[in-house]
Amino acid sequence: MSEKISFTIDGVALEASPGQTILEAADAAGIYIPRLCKMKGLMPFGSCRLCTVLVNGRPQSACTQPAGQNMTVENNTEKLNDYRRSVIEMLFVEGNHYCPFCEKSGNCELQAMAYRFGITAPRYPYMFPDRDVDATHPDVMIDRNRCILCGRCVLTSKAVDGKNVFQFTGRGAHKKISVNSAAGLGGTNLKVIDKAAEVCPVGSIIKKRVGYAVPVGQRKFDARPIGSEIEEEKVK
Amino acid sequence: MAKPKLATASLAGCFGCHMSILDIDERILQLVELVDFDKSPVDDIKEFTGRCRIGLIEGGCCNEENVHVLKKFRENCDILVSVGECATMGGIPALRNTIPLKECLDEAFLNGPTVHNPSGRIPDDPEIPLLLNKVYPCHEVVKIDYFLPGCPPPADAIWAAVAALLEDKPIALPYELIKYD
Predict the structure, then answer these.
(1) I need a labelling partner for A86 at 20 to 30 A (CA). Which of A122, B40, B102, B176 fits?
(2) What separation in angstroms does the CA of A103 have from each of A100, A150, B84?
(3) What percent of chain B is predicted at pLDDT more than 70?
(4) Terminal Cα-to-Cα distance of chain B (whole angstroms)
(5) pLDDT tens digit string along A3-21?
(6) Is the CB of residue B146 less than 8 Å from the CB of residue B164?
(7) How far is CA B142 from CA A152, A161, A234, B33, B137, in A?
(8) Mutate to test the interface with B, among A113, A126, A127 (most CBs of B within 10 A)
């Protein structure tokens, strides 16, 4: 199983190990494929669809699709990037994303993705859904207004923390993150040191009493677009 | 040749975006060389005096007067720009959008813990603009040509936008100037 798989992304030749996904191979080669739900160390989930690439002309999520011999992958094309913009804009209008007062602003991956794509306003009408906030836990809170249903907290709680704090409930527009206690998050065995409390890409699951600690200008995405750390690998 | 005209308005906003317009500092001297301010709180002109090249809108639409002013701006401006989060997505005023209007009014004028209102009436003077059922972003009411995100947008973004439009170029903001907060 040591033979390498050769394929191309936007005409650039790459190598992957057998079983490696397109996204992992691209990361290693310094090619950034945008993603929101995928996180290093977690099983790929394929929920956000932002990493959709064209594999031999067919749309596939790069985080779940293993690289194959002689695959032709399209990633950074005008058409795909417009689909990605459209997905990001849908995520903004179907939640209540008030960046001006959100503690996650500047460190938020959804916001950073919109910055990277130069989005100044969504093309879709805002939905202003009625969502709730669960502040029953002493150290962690859930603001469902900001949830993008990526599933990171669900997977992390199970696979990394060995707990089962979060789960999806409901379907379609009613789908939401629920917790494993009728008393709310405070009734679960979640601890503030759990990995699941820090993996949220947006400001939906946040730790209490640590907000706004980093001044504007020094936050994660203030100066550098999301994905820069991967693209800089290429330069080295 | 007469200078192009610039108009501005604050609808359901906090005037923070207008503060950011003033925050272009000494460049405001350059700006008054380039444009004449028309209807705007900056010079306190209340009605349009002629066709304007650029209209800058702060705030979304929370009442019928906001809609009226916004439509007047669309009629009188060649290029209309949504400035800031409230104009673009409703902003803080839009927090009421998940609460029925009657509940908002009852809380403000009847049931709130600090309310003193012996008449039990919710203000209904014809002079007071009627509230809309919810707060609307400007582009859901009229066609908007450009958006400057931010709360408020950085002064450099406003300057870059106005300077580009006066040179008949499209607004193209660099990464550092697209900020939602």
Answers:
(1) B176
(2) 9, 19, 19
(3) 99
(4) 39
(5) 899 999 999 999 999 999 9
(6) no
(7) 39, 50, 45, 30, 9
(8) A126
Full set of structural domains in chain A with CATH = 5-76 (3.10.20.740), 85-207 (3.30.70.20)
**Tokens read off for A216:** 């504007």
Residues A136 and A140: their CA atoms lie apart, in Å, by: 8
Helix (H, G, I), strand (E, B) or coil at A145: helix
Measured between CB atoms, does A100 come within 8 Å of chain B? yes
Residue type at A225?
A: P
Residues whose CB falls within 8 Å of the CB of residue B75, separated by 6 or more in sequence, listed in order: none
Which DSSP helix (H) or strand (E) runs through A53? strand A52-55
Bridge partners, residue B40, by sequence: B45
Residues of chain A with pLDDT under 50: none
CB contact under 8 A, A100 and B173: no
Q: What is residue A222's DSSP assignment?
A: T
CATH number, domain B5-95+133-177? 3.40.50.700
Whole-number pLDDT of residue A222: 96
Considering only the beta carbons, identify the residue of B90, B94, B181 that sits closest to A106. Answer: B181
Q: Check residue A154 and give its pLDDT.
A: 97
- Pairwise CB contact (< 8 Å): A128 & B98: yes
Amino acid letter, residue B110: L
Segment B75-87 shows an average pLDDT of 98
Which among B140, B173, B178 has CB closest to A125?
A: B140
The pLDDT assigned to A2 comes to 66
Determine whether the interchain pair B88/A121 forms a contact, defined as Cβ–Cβ distance below 8 Å.
yes
Tokens, residue A43: 């099983």
In which band, very low, low, confident or very high, does the pLDDT at B135 lie, cut at 50, 70 and 90? very high
Q: What pLDDT, on a 0 to 100 scale, did the predictor assign at position A236?
A: 57
B140 to chain A: nearest residue by CA?
A125
Place of tokens 């019928």: B64
Tokens of A193: 């040191």
Asked if B56 and B76 count as a contact pair (C-beta separation under 8 A), the reply is: no
ipTM: 0.94
Give dist(CA A71, CA A67) in Å, integer: 7
